Description:
- The protein is of the alpha+beta class.
- It has a single domain (10-167), classed as Thiol Ester Dehydrase, Chain A.
- It has helices at 10-17, 80-97, and strands at residues 39-44, 54-60, 103-108, 111-114, 124-136, 141-151, 154-167.
Amino acid sequence: MAQYPSSFDKDDLLKCARGELFGPGNAQLPEPPMLMMDRITDVSADGGAHGKGHIVAEFDINPDLWFFGCHFPGNPIMPGCLGLDGLWQLTGFNLGWRGWLGRGYALGVGEVKLTGMVRPDRKMLTYKVDFTKAIQTRRLTMGVADGIVEADGEVIYVVKDMKVALSES
Length: 169
């Protein structure tokens, strides 16, 4: 953890996507257009609501984003699954940031509530992930977290019990 900063710009996120940040075979973010954030503003292993770690990121919204043209023609809305994926991406990033080894993958989510939409007139999404568990044993590396997505300061997604693991195989 001490070897990594607590915030990352877009260039840093692209390095992570190429496997250059945490090293080959370790946690990676997807490349655009599936990269669902533009910057990480804060990350810790002991902060957040439960003292088990947190991560906060932002995603700039503009009408030219790829999903608005196809979901849905004449009624553009960002697919809710992309916001959920952004939360999963950040959960895995936090595990790599801790120095834990392995490739990340989503294991599931306990509960998802979508109470608002991301339309092209929104300006920015803010993702907030708070870990409830961060487990590293000989056989298991996993984070369990709750998350929210805000659109221009309004909470529009609430997620409970997201699970992301790292595997060295």
